[in-house]
Specification:
By secondary structure, this protein is an alpha/beta fold. 31% of the residues lie in helices and 18% in strands. The protein has 2 domains: 65 residues, Phospho-2-dehydro-3-deoxyheptonate aldolase, domain 1 (Alpha-Beta Plaits), CATH 3.30.70; 290 residues, TIM Barrel, CATH 3.20.20. It has an 8-stranded parallel barrel, surrounded by 5 helices. Strands 2-3-1-4 form a 4-stranded antiparallel beta sheet, covered by helices on one side. The protein has a two-stranded antiparallel ribbon with strand order 5-6. Strand 2 and strand 3 form a beta hairpin. Bound molecules: phosphoenolpyruvate (PEP) and manganese (II) ion.
C-alpha cells in the first residue's frame, strides 16, 4: 500500500507520549512506520481506515498531519501505475499515444442537420459523434433538449456513419430508462458533483467523459472520477472545458496547465473541449491546437453546418470546413509528438454537403446559447 499521510510529532515529546500516540494511531486501524527526523519523529502512515486527517490532531503529541495527494483519490492515482491507459469507444481511442476526436452539434435539433454534421465530421476524421439530448441550461426558459426522440436521431446518425456517440445524462433515472441505448456517457460540467448520477452511470460499464465543473479545482475533479472508479467503472476520460475566471473575452478560461500536471499523476486520458472554453468559433482552432500540443488525448468539438439556425451554443460551433482543416492540423501535431489520431477517414454513405453559401463565417449572425 502507498503511504497516505505524514505525521510530525511535536518537538521534545516524551517517550511515553510518543508511544501512546503510535498506539492511538494503530487503534484507529492505521499502519504506522517510524522515520527519525532530526531528533523528532515523523510517521509515514498507510491509511487502513477512513479517518479524517484533521481528527488525528486531537491525539496528544501530534503537531502536524500532511495528507499526501494520493490519499483523497487513491483509485484515480493508482491508474498512474503501469503507464497511461487507453479508453476505447469503437474506433475512438483516447490515451496511450492515441488521440480521439469527438465532434458534432451541441444539441440534437433536426435529424437532417445531424445527419449532415455526422457525415461531415466522419469524413474529416472524427472518431466519435457528440450531441446533447438532455441539456443542462442555465435558464429554465432555454431549450432543454429533445429527450428520447432526439436520442433516436443520434442513434440513427451513429448507425449511418459508423461513429459511436457520446451524449450527456443529467438525471440518475435516465440511466435505467436509456442507458442500454447509449455508447458513451457525458457528465456535464454542472453535474460533475452529482454523486448519485455518477454512481448510477458507473453501473453501465460504458466509457464516461467526465467534464470538470467550471469552479472545481483539480482535486475535486479527481474525486468525482474516484466515485466512478469506486463504483467499478475504470473507463473514465477526464475532460477539461475551462473554468470561471476574470474577464469576458472568453466564455471560460481553459486550464491547459492541468494537462501536463495530470499526466504526471494519473493514467486516465484527458480530453479537451475548446468549444465551451472559447465560446466563439474564431478562437476554437487555436485552443484545440494548444491542447494537443500540451498533451491532450483528444478533443470534443462542436460542429454545425448552419450555426445561425441552432438554439444552443451557436456562436462557438465550427463549420464542417473549419473542422476539417483543424483535423489536418491535429494530425500533424499528433505526429510531431509520436502519436496517432484514432478512427479512420472513411468514405461514408450519403453525400457530404458543405455549409450553404449563406452560412459562411463572414456573414453568420449567431447568438450565444446556454
Ligand atoms: C456541452 O457539452 O454541450 C455542455 C453543456 O458542456 P459543459 O457541461 O462543459 O458546459
Ligand atoms: Mn454546448
Amino acid at each position: 500500500m502507498r503511504p497516505t499521510l505524514l505525521i510530525l510529532l511535536k518537538p521534545d515529546v516524551s517517550a511515553p507520549v510518543r508511544a501512546e500516540a503510535v498506539e492511538a494511531l494503530r487503534a484507529l486501524g492505521l499502519t504506522v512506520a517510524e522515520v527519525p527526523l532530526e531528533g523528532r519523529c515523523l510517521y509515514v502512515v498507510t491509511q487502513g481506515a477512513a479517518v479524517p486527517p484533521d481528527s488525528l490532531l486531537r491525539i496528544p503529541g501530534i503537531q502536524k498531519v500532511v495528507p499526501l495527494e494520493e490519499s483523497g483519490a487513491p483509485l484515480v492515482h493508482a491508474t498512474h501505475d503501469g503507464g497511461p491507459r487507453t479508453v476505447c469507444l469503437g474506433n475512438a481511442h483516447f490515451g496511450g499515444g492515441s488521440l480521439g476526436v469527438i465532434a458534432g452539434p451541441c444539441t440534437v435539433e433536426s435529424g437532417d442537420d445531424l445527419q449532415q454534421t455526422a457525415h461531415a465530421v466522419a469524413s474529416a476524421g472524427a472518431a466519435a459523434l457528440r450531441g446533447g439530448v438532455f441539456k443542462v441550461r442555465t435558464s429554465p426558459h432555454s431549450f432543454q433538449g429533445g429527450g428520447a426522440a432526439a436520442l433516436d436521431l443520434l442513434i440513427a446518425a451513429s448507425q449511418e456513419t459508423g461513429l459511436p456517440f457520446f451524449t450527456e445524462l443529467n438525471d440518475p433515472r435516465q440511466v435505467a430508462l436509456l442507458g442500454d441505448r447509449l455508447d458513451g456517457v457525458q457528465i456535464g460540467a454542472r453535474h460533475m458533483q452529482n454523486f448519485p448520477l455518477l454512481k448510477e452511470v458507473a453501473t453501465l460499464g460504458k466509457p464516461v467523459l467526465l467534464k470538470r465543473h467550471m469552479a472545481a479545482d483539480v482535486d475535486e475533479w479527481l474525486l468525482a472520477a474516484e466515485y466512478l472508479l469506486d463504483a467499478g467503472n475504470e473507463q473514465v476520460i477526464l475532460c477539461e472545458r475551462g473554468v470561471k475566471s476574470v474577464g469576458r473575452h472568453v466564455r471560460s478560461m481553459l486550464d491547459l496547465g492541468a494537462i501536463p500536471y495530470l499526466k504526471r499523476r494519473v493514467g486516465l486520458p484527458i480530453v479537451v473541449d475548446p468549444s465551451h472554453a472559447a465560446g466563439h468559433h474564431d478562437l476554437v482552432p487555436d485552443l484545440a491546437r494548444a491542447a494537443v500540443a500540451a498533451g491532450a488525448d483528444g478533443l470534443i468539438i462542436e460542429v454545425h453546418p448552419r450555426p445561425e439556425q441552432t438554439r444552443c451554443d451557436a456562436l462557438q460551433a465550427l463549420l464542417p470546413s473549419e473542422f476539417s482543416k483543424l483535423m489536418g492540423d491535429v494530425r500533424q501535431l499528433a505526429a510531431m509528438s509520436g502519436r496517432t489520431v484514432s478512427g479512420t477517414v472513411r468514405a461514408v454513405r450519403g453525400a457530404v454537403r458543405e455549409s450553404a453559401p449563406d452560412s459562411d463565417v463572414s456573414d453568420r449572425n449567431r447568438s450565444v446559447g446556454a
